[in-house]
Amino acid sequence: MATVNPYLNFSGNCEEAFEFYKSVFGGDFTGLSRFSDAPSDPSSPPADPNQIMHVALPIGDDQVLMGSDRPASMGSTTPGDNVQITVGADTTDEARRLFDGLAEGGQVTMPFERTFWGADFGMCVDRFGIPWMVNHDVNPDG
């Protein structure tokens, strides 16, 4: 069964925002990585290495608030375009089906493929203008 969680984008203050959310909701981050943790990619414009590439804060038993800083190469964030919906699938096949369905008639912004962090992942904007991220952790325990 797929899970759905909000994903927030920031213009350089993601870490500050998530420290605030952590103080409000409690708990600990289950993941925090910076752009410096990513392998270099000459085809991608550089991002500030100290900014947050991904952070996850569990809220309650079944929800996770996630976020990242948006690199300048992707444009600045403005209210209304700084929230995405992330879908976590149980299998690669389910993730591919969901991604293909959401992308139909929309725009693929990152093709669905295996990533360096060990997930099958893709990003798209559906035909109604809603941004989605679809993820399946290939080896969630490891």
What layout of secondary structure does this protein have?
Layout: E1 3-10, H1 14-25, E2 31-34, E3 52-59, E4 63-69, E5 83-88, H2 92-103, E6 107-114, E7 119-125, E8 131-137
Model description:
The chain is of the alpha+beta class. Helices cover 17% and strands 39% of the residues. The protein contains 2 helices and 8 strands; from the N terminus they run βαββββαβββ. It has helices spanning 14-25, 92-103, and strands at 3-10, 31-34, 52-59, 63-69, 83-88, 107-114, 119-125, 131-137. The chain has an 8-stranded mixed sheet, with helices on one face. Strand 7 and strand 8 (131-137) form a beta hairpin. The longest helix has 12 residues, at 14-25. The model has no long low-confidence stretch (mean pLDDT 86).
Strand order, largest beta sheet: 2-3-4-1-5-8-7-6
Which secondary-structure class do the elements indicate? alpha+beta
Number of helices: 2
Residue share in helices? 10-25%
Task: Give the overall shape.
Answer: globular
**End-to-end distance:** 21 Å
Q: Tell me the major beta sheet.
A: 8 strands, mixed
Mean pLDDT: 86
* Poorly predicted tracts of residues: none
At a glance:
With 142 residues, the chain is an alpha+beta fold. It is built from 2 helices and 8 strands, in the order βαββββαβββ.
Considering the chains and any ligands shown, give keywords for the structure.
alpha+beta
